[in-house]
Amino acid sequence: MKHTIAVIAGDGIGTEVMPAAISCLDEIAQIHDLSLDWNHLDWGSDHFRATGRMLPVDGLETLSTHSAIFLGAVGVPDIPDVETLWGLLIPIRREFEQYINLRPVRTLPGVPSVLRDERPIDLVLVRENNEGEYSEVGGRAYRGLPQEAAMQQALFTRHGVSRAARFAAELATTRSGRVTSATKSNGIIHSMPFWDEIVAETLAEYPGLTLRSELIDALSASLVLHPWDYDVIVASNLFGDILSDLAGAVAGSIGLSPSANLNPEGRHPSMFEPVHGSAPDIAGKGIANPIGQIWSGAMMLNQLGAPRAAAHLEAAFEAALAAGVRTRDLGGTATTEQMTAEVISQIRALA
Ligand code: NAI
Ligand code: MG
After folding, report:
1. Which residues on neighbouring strands pair with residue 100, listed in sequence order?
2. Out of 115, 117, 125, 268, which could bridge 103 as a Cys pair, Cβ 3.0 to 4.6 Å?
3. pTM metric for this prediction
4. Isopropylmalate dehydrogenase-like domain location, by residue (predicted)?
């Protein structure tokens, strides 16, 4: 089966972890007889500087012909983040109805936990990815005057919340059967009670599942104190974003965390990217952890219908970490290149 994949390495460490992940995926593809055809697109902040746009005018049309999109990260210190995010990432997520952002977090072998208690963590964040707090509704008024004001409306729809809840429920039926919903219905008095109602209504269709609604502030603390008690967590766009960095860091480093932006019906390509950003503080040093990007590649293989190849790749980076090769964010000294070389040698060893 031949797959053409759109590659947007983007900015900063995106350009370092992307080639690392592609070399692992090429190795896997060879062993599993997959044909992965990479279409490298130089879209990102340099493209913005040259053309005033992050994506070309027909960029989404170009992407729509691919089997999947593989993204590094976008964002540079000298361009406002709203340009990079709303110029590229958010239009892709919305235009292609990638309404689920799936972010697994689990303890990996050889990765020291930041917690004293080393009980294993194995949870999945299901983040609503198309609406909620990330909304264009609002505006600025009286710019530059003392009465200057900004207003930002969150937008929650029955359609949007119920499909996120349904995805989480279906996922939970294949795992422990426990779903936690992140809410703030004590303080946010319109949208969050609405979220709670629709999540509860949807989950009621799954009598075998248990649902716990937890306020986001307490949930954040609990995720640090006893993350092993969580399994599937469903959250709005903003809450899910924050919880995924938090949970990723608790499990060892956000450099490990992968994500899939899914169009579950497969009408449009899905997009795979690490949870982290372009990390300008370490960009250009060759020390970024490539595992988040590699693991995102494994999620892509799953979506492309190659679960055995995906499992092989996951086993390989786990074996590489277990062998003691670690990048600096994990307390080690390995460079991006050395970490990648170890993953490739484990891919071969496990073939
Ligand atoms: P960040 O995730 O880029 O970095 C946060 C911290 O984690 C930094 O100290 C960084 O060095 C470290 N880190 C991140 N990834 C790492 C890796 N693979 N290996 C080792 N250490 C790693 O978040 P930050 O600093 O808030 O954002 C930087 C830029 O990235 C901004 O322009 C932001 O808008 C953008 N961004 C883009 C995203 C995307 O393209 N999907 C997601 C998040 C942020
Ligand atoms: Mg984020």
Report:
1. 128, 262
2. 125
3. 0.96
4. 4-343
